[in-house]
Amino acid sequence: MKKKSMKMQSRMLLSCKTKEGSFDSMRNDEVGFIARTDELIRGFGERLTEKGGVDKKKNVNQKMMQLSRLLLEVRQKKPNISIKELINPKHFNDVVGTEKEMCGLEAKGWLSLAIKLQHDLKKCSMIVMGWGLKSLIMHWRTGGRTSLA
Q: Can you give the pTM of this predicted structure?
């Protein structure tokens, strides 16, 4: 594994402070609402904003909106599902099928959006792994007296 890749993965495991201003420019539609309210999409956006700074705000918002659109499309088939649940391997076929529909792979063969979503979902899985490690550490520090969430 490359050193730069290891640093990026380690950074995704860390928690970061909420940057409220980074979500102000989003539209007030259903996709924007999902981007602002889904815990994992917010965490994804916060980490990208932390990494890229204010200069990359437009790019971060675009990536968050892409994840929100994916979630919205999957919710047409499976209501009340979250991005965190989509990372689970049992939903792999749902995610791939939805990406194909979104990208129009059968008709046009566009792969760029599918590849971008793949990278973004990998980053989201690293964030979830960080949350799990953090809760495990808290569990150990309390002597195992609390249950893992």
A: 0.74
